[in-house]
């Protein structure tokens, strides 16, 4: 059972530690009123951390203030969360960690889940493991810069299936400290590659690039390598039909070479109520380089989810009211 330990709040949110079901401490940060009408939970990507949402969070705070409860957390092995046995570094385990965070921090009320890259894959795995929550507790989903399957088929994801990646995973397991030192020594080599791979065709600020680079370099090589196998095998195509009952946002950049936009097109085509948003010139780190536009899309998603919930509630009331006559038509439901 997950447990929760609350620390003092500060200007940077309320800092909380949630214990995953296997005891791994997960660092969580909350913004907005905990009793707000809706909670939005943000799930970050591979080798990033909750602060990857910082630029977006600023825009969302200016729009929502305390009227929306926002929850950000670090995956196991990332950021301020605890390390764990590498055998638990799988997307399915991350979905179970997401459930632990929800149980501890958002025990009641409607929730919108927003995931970026591996975080979006975590959300899809969560929908498979906890299908009873979709359409009941989870009223909306945002899938940013991600895919439902086949990440090794196109883009830089093809490199994951290379023999060198298998060798890297073995080497890291055997000598993690030596490999981590090697990672730091090669930082100057990887910075330009990271910039081209994660950021799009438009110029980005040096501060933004520094933030992205710092997050990647703060992640241990053991964490980075251990998740690769799960990423290679990821396939939640069969889960997509479960999302048809709620509003879904599928968003990505046209210049994403890590997970090309074609993945988002395929993903959106298999979800009934999906809105597909393409940001021209944006790369994989769309939440950093195009934070304001992504924030606006998330605000619209939450509005759609709230509106859909109100319509459903009104329709249910109409159906249950024995005095409801011929005038209780679709217009009545929408107006409610």
Describe this structure in words.
Helices cover 43% and strands 17% of the residues. With 336 residues, the chain is α/β, with parallel strands linked by helices. A hairpin with a 2-residue loop joins strand 1 and strand 2 (13-19). Helix 2 packs across helix 3 and helix 4 packs across helix 5 (176-185). Residues 5-10, 181-194 and 314-336 have low confidence and may be disordered.
Mean pLDDT: 81
**Helix run count:** 13
Provide the gyration radius in Å: 20 Å
Quote the beta fraction. Answer: 15-25%
The stretches of 5 or more residues where confidence is low (pLDDT under 50) are 5-10, 181-194, 314-336
Number of strands: 9
Structural class: alpha/beta
Largest sheet report: 9 strands, mixed
Query: N- to C-terminal separation?
Result: 39 Å
Instruction: Kindly state the percentage of residues in helix.
Output: 40-55%
Helix/strand order: EEEEHEHEHEHHHHHHEHEHHH
In short:
This protein has helices at residues 54-64, 91-105, 118-129, 163-174, 176-185, 187-198, 206-218, 221-226, 228-233, 261-269, 286-289, 291-320, 330-335, and strands at 3-10, 13-19, 25-31, 39-43, 69-73, 111-116, 138-144, 248-253, 274-279. It is an alpha/beta fold and 336 residues long.
């Amino acid at each position: 059972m997950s447990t929760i330990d609350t620390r003092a709040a500060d200007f940077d949110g309320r800092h909380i530690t949630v214990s995953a079901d296997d005891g791994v401490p997960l660092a969580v940060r909350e913004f907005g009123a905990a009793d707000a009408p809706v909670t939005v939970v943000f799930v970050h990507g591979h080798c990033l951390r909750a602060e990857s949402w910082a630029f977006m969070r600023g825009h969302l705070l200016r729009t929502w203030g305390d009227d929306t409860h926002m929850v950000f957390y670090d995956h196991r092995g990332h950021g301020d969360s605890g390390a764990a046995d590498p055998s638990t570094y799988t997307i399915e385990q991350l979905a179970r960690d997401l459930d632990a965070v929800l149980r501890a921090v958002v025990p009641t009320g409607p929730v919108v889940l927003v995931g970026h890259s591996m975080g979006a894959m975590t959300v899809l795995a969560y929908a498979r493991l906890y299908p009873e929550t979709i359409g009941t507790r989870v009223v909306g989903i945002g899938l940013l810069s991600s895919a439902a399957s086949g990440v090794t088929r196109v883009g830089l994801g093809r490199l994951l299936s290379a023999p060198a990646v298998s060798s890297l995973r073995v080497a890291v397991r055997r000598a993690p400290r030596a490999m981590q030192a090697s990672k730091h020594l090669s930082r100057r080599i990887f910075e330009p590659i990271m910039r081209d791979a994660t950021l799009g065709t438009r110029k980005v600020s040096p501060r933004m690039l520094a933030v992205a680079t710092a997050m990647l370099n703060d992640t241990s090589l053991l964490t980075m390598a251990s998740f690769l196998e799960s990423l290679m095998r990821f396939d939640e195509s069969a889960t997509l039909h479960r999302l048809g009952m709620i509003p879904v946002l599928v968003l990505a950049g046209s210049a994403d070479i890590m997970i090309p936009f074609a993945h988002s097109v395929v993903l959106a085509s298999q979800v009934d109520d999906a809105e597909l948003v393409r940001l021209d010139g944006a790369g994989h780190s769309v939440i950093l380089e195009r934070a304001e536009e992504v924030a606006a899309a998330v605000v619209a998603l939450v509005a759609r989810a709230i509106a859909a919930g109100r319509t459903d509630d009104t329709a249910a009331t109409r159906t249950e009211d024995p005095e409801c006559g011929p005038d209780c038509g679709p217009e009545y439901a929408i107006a409610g």
